[in-house]
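User: Continuing from earlier, I have the next pair ready.

Assistant: Great, send them over.

User: Here they are, in order.

Assistant: Folding the first of the pair now:
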Amino acid sequence: MLKQNGRGTTEYDASVRTMRSGSRMALAVVALAAAAVATPAPSAAAAPASATEACTGWRVIQVDNNAAGVKYRECDRYSGLNTQTRAEFYIWDNRHDGKVAQVYTATGSNLNGQWHQSWQKFYAWGNESHHSPLVNTGWHKGHDVKVLLKAVRG
């Protein structure tokens, strides 16, 4: 039931950035020590057993008086100097109004106030009787996730 869709009308943007500076600083020191003795770096899709993973709490976005909604969280993992992020979410279409809930997700990094995107995808859900299954975007380069929710004509 999840499908890609590129059309939209009403929209709300929620950008999440998780800065865990204390843990990032400690991880950077460990990463520098590990880099001195490391062999070739693992691919972006595979994380070694030593990767550190952390997730935010769940957040909710609603549009059009709760006609559509998304409950999401961001997870980051660090291994050496490699940082990856992913989003996990559920999509709701709460109103039988000819529109479907559409979620646009993107991963990347905010460097010096400028967004550098590494990945993006649209997901849509139009079943008013229940929410979507858990969507996991998979790991992608970066440390920020952007989530955009729209109610679009289906």
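And the other member of the pair:
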Amino acid sequence: MKQLSSLVFIFLFIGCNSQADITDNLTAPETFAFQILDHNGENVFSNNTLDPKKITVKNLDSNDLVKHHFVSDNNLNIIVLENVGRESDNINYSVNVGDKSIFELHVDAILVKKGLDFEYKNIAITNTTFKRDKTSGVYNVLASLD
């Protein structure tokens, strides 16, 4: 019995990591979803004006590509960025289709330690006109197709 309790104590001691990062236990940051519309209000991917395979998201500070998802289920056709603010507190992204920048996303993400959650300040979408759907949370972005 003494050996068993010693073994349990050793596993507990090894399992407790005093150097764990506080961000390991955070809830995930907000997901940003974008529907790209033409001047008629039609989704540019649904009407085949733009090719979703040519979407890239670029970090304007580092020039690195940013992971994104294109959701085409049920003809939704939206661009999704997850974990915005998880790695950095200042986000400066360019969303592109082919060699054309459709819009830029700028976000100040702040870790709120009291609730172990993220808070977003100064969310800005530039180089376009947009409106956020309050029900779905999707940003409807007007694409300049000139």
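Worth noting for the second one:
The chain has one helix and nine strands. Confidence is low (pLDDT under 50) at residues 1-23.
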